[in-house]
Amino acid sequence: MCESPASLFSFISEGFFNLKLIIRMTLTERIGEKYITYQGYEVEIIEYFKEKNCTIILKDGTVLKNRKYDDIKNGKIKNPFHPTIHGIGYYGLGKYTANYKSYEVWRGILNRAYNQKYSEKINTYKDVTVCEEWHNFQNFAKWFEENYKPHMEGWHLDKDILVRGNKTYSPETCCFVPQEINILFTKSSKVRGNLYIGVTYNSYNYVASININKKKTYLGCYNTPEEAFQAYKIAKEIEIKRVATLWKDLIDPQVYQAMCNYKVEITD
Which contacts of 165-172 are long-range, i.e. CB under 8 A and separated by 24 or more positions? Predict the structure, then answer.
């Protein structure tokens, strides 16, 4: 015997009601569930809209939205404040992603500061650090976006032109410069040994020389290393000012001023 339309409608309505009830129970039951991530952090579900849209909270109060339930349950959630780069740098929360140019630059400075191979290979990286603010990639990326201009493609991030002898990468000490400027301040400590910068010995005299436009220019032979250094000092300071003037319209005014005021020291 066939069911009446009214009975059939009642059956379907009851089925939908039960389905909604099950869904509502599932949504409610999953709130409060706790799991441990592969990085060792406890997370708790505080909002559950559907399997692909959950809100979780970490013990430190960090709230992460739009996370998949399966990822939460299987421990695949990443803590954006977990220091993944040399135990120092972390991704942070914000709009900047690894697809931004700034990400590779950020990884690079952390590498130079905290990868022991760099300090062993290049002495100038010994004791170099990155300021705490820039441990967070989002902060560095914001500074990068504000300071890296279109004409600076291929330029280098420098930490010690604005502040002589500086060992910390920070917003106050860093600037972008073209390679021609960057190599002006290369010390080559390992190559020259115990002699002063710009000075070599040829078995008879002390020789002063300087690189101009990637070519070595000899400045003369001298009886003492101090005399040779003085010749180098005068020529080097003139060369730094020349290059600063050449790039004046493109570099930051602070960089131009620092170059014009730069003094070569015998202890360099």
Answer: 167/127, 167/128, 167/129, 168/128, 168/129, 168/130, 168/131, 169/109, 169/113, 169/128, 169/129, 169/130, 169/131, 169/134, 170/130, 170/131, 170/133, 170/134, 171/131, 171/133, 171/134, 171/143
Where b means 16+ CB within 10 Å and e means fewer, 17-52 reads eeeeeeeeeeeeebeebebebeeebebebeebeeee
Q: What is the pTM assigned to this prediction? A: 0.81
- From first to last of its 268 residues, the chain has per-residue pLDDT tens of 445 554 544 544 554 444 444 455 556 678 999 999 999 999 999 999 888 899 999 988 999 999 999 999 999 999 999 999 999 999 999 999 999 999 999 999 999 999 988 777 777 778 899 999 999 999 999 999 999 999 999 999 999 999 998 999 999 999 999 999 999 988 766 666 789 999 999 888 999 999 998 889 999 999 999 999 999 999 999 999 999 999 999 999 999 999 999 999 998 8
Q: Set out the domains of the chain in order of their start, with CATH numbers.
A: 5-73 (2.30.30), 80-151 (no CATH), 178-268 (no CATH)
